[in-house]
Every structure is written in C-alpha cells, then in structure tokens.
C-alpha cells in the first residue's frame, strides 16, 4: 500500500506537465502574485490557500461524482460556466475595478460583491484565495492514467484505500503547484513594480484571468488538451508514469 501511495504522489507531480493543468497554471501564478499595500514580505499564505483549496476541491468533487448520482446528470457545461464565470469575474474586477464597482452599485449587488470578491485594494483576502482555488476543482479532468485507475477501479472497490490514493495524488499535484505559486510570489515581491496593486502587472493578471475564464466557459481548454494528447506530446510523461505503476 505504501508503494502505491508513493506512486500516486509521484503521478500527481508528473500531472503538472500534462495539458489538463494548463487552465490552472495562470490562476495559480497570477493569484499567488496578487497582494495589497500592507504586504511587504514574501509569504506562502496566498499560494498555500489557493493551492490547498484547489486540492481539496479536486478530492471533494471527485468523491461527489463517484459517491452520488445527483451530479452525474449535470451537464459538464454547467461546471464550466460556474468555474469559468468565477475566474472571469475576478479578471474583470482586477482589470476594471472602478467600472465593476459602479455596476455593482447600479444593480444593487454592492454588498454581496464586496463580500465575494472584495474591493480591488483588498483582493488578497483569504476568502478570495479560497474561492479562486476551489473554483477550478469542478473542471479538473486529469490526463493521468494513475488518477483514472484510482477513480475507476480502486475507489469503487475500497473507499478508504481509494481516498488515500486520491489524496496522495492531489497532494503531489498541489506540492508542485505550490512551488510554482511561491516562485511567482517571490518575483512579485522582489520586483516592486510588479507589486503595485493598481499597476500594469495587476491589469495583465486581470486580462489573463478573463482569457482563462472565457476558455473554460467555451470549452477551449478541453480542445487544447485533446489536441496535445492526440499529437502525442504528453506520451513520454504517461509512459514514465506507467513505468512507475508497473514496478
């Protein structure tokens, strides 16, 4: 069992190189780099919360899909709209904070919007990080053969063992994403012009969030994943992972 836990953990690490991670990386890097004027030191808080929320979201959503029929009849587009919409809203809030605030005031959703997204000067709040990370769990669809084995075979046979392997896989994936997020955090902290909460970098992150949100909304991310898989670009990583499983 220990060997399979290690294999699941290693498979999670290798998944970072898979095309199915493409929608996650901009959000992890961009979200980890956001900060406000009160933050002066390098901190693991934001990337840890974002990645931790993503990991838990992946585990919980995987279990929900396998444990209940309530979600099986829900079209995949619903999850894409939900996840893509949240990322899109964050992007709009970053890119057009004043316009966003005016729209919220005009529509009467000012209080709710402030609680959900926070004002642009406070966009590094814990709730924002949790929501941003958790939003991507429903659209995560791993290319990993180990993940597919856990979900399709091991989890139905033994919930406890399957959950252990699934958690090990998610932690492996999250550990590398955390390193990526921390690396982005270091860069934005060292380079002061990147740290300006109202600067150009924040606007670029907003544009990236909007693009990622639109990609998820219209399923473009799935087409990219399919293209990469069909052309065999991920085959070396899959073979490496399968070699681990065969030992």
In which range does the helix fraction lie? over 70%
Low-pLDDT runs: 115-124
* Percentage beta strand: under 5%
H/I helix tally: 13
Mean pLDDT: 76
Strand-pairing-aware structural class: mainly alpha
Describe this protein's structure.
The chain has one domain (2-242). Helix content is 74%, strand content 0%. The chain contains 13 helices and no strands. The protein has helices at 2-15, 24-33, 45-67, 76-95, 97-107, 110-116, 126-134, 145-157, 159-190, 192-195, 200-217, 220-230, 235-246. The chain is globular. It starts with a helix and ends with a helix.
Quickly list its features.
single chain; 247 residues; mainly alpha; globular
Layout of secondary structure:
Blueprint: H1 2-15, H2 24-33, H3 45-67, H4 76-95, H5 97-107, H6 110-116, H7 126-134, H8 145-157, H9 159-190, H10 192-195, H11 200-217, H12 220-230, H13 235-246
């Amino acid at each position: 069992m220990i060997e399979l836990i290690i294999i699941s953990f290693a498979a999670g690490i290798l998944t970072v190189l898979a095309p199915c991670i493409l929608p996650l990386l901009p959000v992890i890097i961009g979200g980890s780099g956001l900060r406000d004027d009160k933050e002066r030191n390098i901190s693991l808080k934001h990337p840890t919360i974002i990645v931790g929320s993503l990991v838990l979201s992946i585990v919980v959503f995987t279990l929900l899909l396998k444990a209940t029929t309530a979600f099986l009849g829900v079209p995949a587009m619903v999850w894409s709209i939900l996840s893509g919409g949240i990322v899109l809203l964050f992007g709009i809030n970053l890119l057009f904070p004043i316009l966003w605030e005016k729209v919220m005031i005009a529509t009467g959703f000012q209080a709710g919007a402030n609680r959900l997204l926070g004002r642009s000067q406070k966009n590094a709040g814990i709730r924002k990080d949790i929501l941003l990370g958790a939003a991507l769990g429903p659209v995560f669809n791993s290319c990993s053969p180990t993940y597919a084995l856990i979900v399709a075979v091991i989890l139905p046979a033994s919930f406890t063992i399957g959950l252990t392997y699934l958690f090990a896989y998610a932690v492996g994936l999250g550990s590398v994403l955390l390193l990526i997020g921390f690396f982005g955090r270091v860069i934005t902290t060292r380079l002061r012009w990147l740290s300006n909460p109202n600067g150009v970098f924040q606007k670029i992150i907003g544009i990236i969030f909007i693009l990622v949100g639109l990609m998820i909304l219209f399923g473009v991310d799935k087409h990219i994943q399919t293209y990469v898989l069909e052309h065999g670009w991920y085959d070396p990583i899959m073979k490496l992972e399968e070699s681990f499983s065969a030992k």
